[in-house]
Structures are given as structure tokens and as C-alpha cells.
Specification:
By secondary structure, this protein is α/β, with parallel strands linked by helices. It contains 7 helices and 11 strands.
């Protein structure tokens, strides 16, 4: 069962179309940019520099801590953090920015209508993002989450970001979709390595073998990107 928002004035769903000035220009790099974007929160964030942090839903404790570290450090360096509000790495990345209570914000791209919360356990997280960041979806209110929605959601995450940081990605992880799409769009792809015996890193190591940049610290990411404060 998908828990609906209690839609108050604070959670009013709005829409921006392809021909609106507020429509994010980075999405025009896609061959199939969404014709409409539904949102709750500050649409102006989409014109500012952001980085994606993605990874395993069934993340390890260490992976969750790394997601928090990269999210907060990159946020304090001037980048908003975008992810997909899934369990695991996504949720940790969003939560870390919210807990900073500072200038950086977080953007969640959803694979369902914004009158629903998926996963339902992230209802409170979604409400905090709505109040202090941005919830975004190309799906109209009333749309339930479907498996095929999430690869399409991932293309939005990839296109909006200047780069994607991958933390713990298995061989069939949806994070690989985001990373490949980002690379095809000319965005940077950064990957944290892990144990060669762990299934959680099979996809991560594949990305590194194929040319993604191996990173160990947030500073490794910042050295490859333009200064966020100069945008």
C-alpha cells in the first residue's frame, strides 16, 4: 500500500512544462525530455549546480556512512544533492543534506505521482524534502510506482546532475543505468571501489573498468568539477 501525502498548502503539487522559463535546460540534452514536470518545493534549485549520489538499496552500514559523508561534504562545497529517494544509499544521501540544516538542498526524483510516497516508509523524508528542497516527477498525481518508471526516472537524475557518484552498485543495480546515461550525456561518473569478493561492488568495479573515475574521498570529486560557487 502506498501512503499518500496529506496535501496541505505546503505540499501543493505544481507543474512546469517544456516551454516554461523554469524548465531545467539540462534536461534538453535528453532525446526524450519530459514534456511536463510535477513538483513540490523550490523549482529554482534545478537551475543550480547539483551532483547525484546513487547506490544500493540494500546498502551496507559502511555504504550508508559513505553516502552521508559524500552528500554532506559535496553539499557544503556548494552542490545540491539529487537522488531517487529509494531505500539505502539514496535515502542516506537525502537525509544527510537535510540534517545539515544549511544552504545546500536535496532534490528527489520519483517514479510515481507526487501524491503518493514510495517507498511508503519514506513518508517523513519526502515531507522534509518538500519543505526544504524539491520533489520532482514526470508522472502526474495518481500514478502508482511501476518497475519501468524507474529507469526513466534515472535519466532525469543523470541529465540534471553535473556528475554522478556511485556508492555500492551490484551487477544489476539501477545505479548502473544512471551512470551509463550520465556518461552518454557527457556528465562525470565517479565510483567508490570495494571488496572484489562482495556482490555489492560488482557493478561498481565494472564501471571503473569501463572508464569511470575511481574516488576515495569527496575531494577527489571536487578536483574534477567546476567550482559550484562560480555558477
Amino acid at each position: 500500500m502506498h501512503t499518500p501525502f496529506s496535501l496541505t498548502a505546503d505540499f501543493r503539487i505544481q507543474v512546469v512544462t517544456l516551454d516554461c522559463p523554469q524548465y531545467p535546460k539540462r534536461l534538453l540534452d535528453l532525446s526524450d525530455p519530459p514534456q511536463r514536470l510535477f513538483y513540490v518545493g523550490d523549482i529554482g534549485l534545478l537551475a543550480q549546480p547539483m551532483l547525484a549520489i546513487v547506490g544500493a538499496r540494500k546498502a551496507s552500514f559502511a555504504g550508508m556512512r559513505l553516502a552521508q559523508y559524500f552528500s554532506s561534504t559535496l553539499g557544503l562545497a556548494g552542490y545540491h544533492i539529487i537522488s531517487g529517494m529509494a531505500y539505502g544509499i539514496d535515502g542516506a544521501a537525502h537525509q544527510s543534506i537535510l540534517d545539515l540544516n544549511a544552504a545546500p538542498k536535496t532534490i528527489a526524483v520519483c517514479g510515481n505521482g507526487l501524491d503518493r510516497t514510495y517507498p511508503p516508509e519514506h513518508r517523513e523524508l519526502a515531507a522534509r524534502i518538500a519543505m526544504n528542497g524539491l520533489l520532482l516527477s514526470e508522472y502526474p498525481p495518481g500514478t502508482s510506482p511501476k518497475g519501468f518508471h524507474f529507469p526513466r526516472r534515472n535519466r532525469i537524475i543523470a541529465a540534471l546532475s553535473l556528475g554522478v557518484v556511485v556508492i555500492e552498485a551490484a551487477q544489476k543495480s539501477g545505479s548502473l543505468i544512471t551512470a551509463y546515461l550520465a556518461s552518454a550525456l557527457g556528465r562525470e561518473v565517479f565510483v567508490l571501489p570495494g571488496s572484489i569478493s562482495s556482490p555489492l561492488f560488482e557493478g561498481s568495479h565494472q564501471l571503473i573498468q569501463e572508464g569511470a573515475k575511481l574516488v576515495r574521498h569527496a575531494q577527489d570529486v571536487l578536483e574534477e568539477l567546476p567550482n559550484a560557487y562560480l555558477h
